[in-house]
Amino acid sequence: MKLIVTTEQYEQLFDPSKRPVEVERARLKTLRRGQELRRRSLEHQQERANACD
Amino acid sequence: MLPFDPEDLDLQQMPHTYSCGAFTCGNSAIDHALRNDLLIAIAEGRNKGYYLEYHGSLVAFTSLRAATFEIDPIDREHRAITSRHVSGIRIELVGIATQYQRGGVGTRLMEEIAAIAAEVAQRVGARFLAVESLPSAQKFYTSLGFTPTQVQPPGTTIFMVLDLMENDEAA
Lengths: 53, 171
Fold this sequence. Notes:
The complex is a heterodimer of chains A (53) and B (171). Chain A has two helices and one strand. Chain A is mainly α and 53 residues long. The termini of chain A are far apart. In chain B, a hairpin with a 2-residue loop joins β2 (48-54) and β3. Chains A and B meet through β1, α1 and α2 of A and β3, α2, β6 and β7 of B.
């Protein structure tokens, strides 16, 4: 997959401190919320598996 | 208004035998890819599929595969400066059932997908989660923290990436 970027985009790709604050805030929020959702999905999966035992 | 809270649905991994029922996302190409290409790719181990269901009906799905990104920065004169190959994960298909669109399902789906991708990144080394977005979906991915990477004329698809690295590791 080939990604063509400007030099500014290239720097932002690898250095969070060069990204707009709102972009970084949205990214971290997505990852944090995702971790919580993942934890719950796996927990429910385990409960279902235990119920079948 | 949805008959459920998207956060109450559990994300599950799609087996290659999954039955999609009457699911349609309104895009016939995606519907066809779900029923044909994706299930074959899952059976062959090339992709992983994930889905949300409500009362046994498919609500939304997506598929992931490992990818290598060749990142080419260009200068103001549009000359390639260098090329860097970085491992990542690519979102290949996304579909939300037409009756459940615009209710937060997509956000819920992508947030957990990002977390799954981040787990992989931490374990084996992968920097970005990438998606080839339609122009109509670009705002949606931007709201999740994805950034556009490709210089393209307006109206065409655009690659967007999400950095999976934790801040204290990123450089």
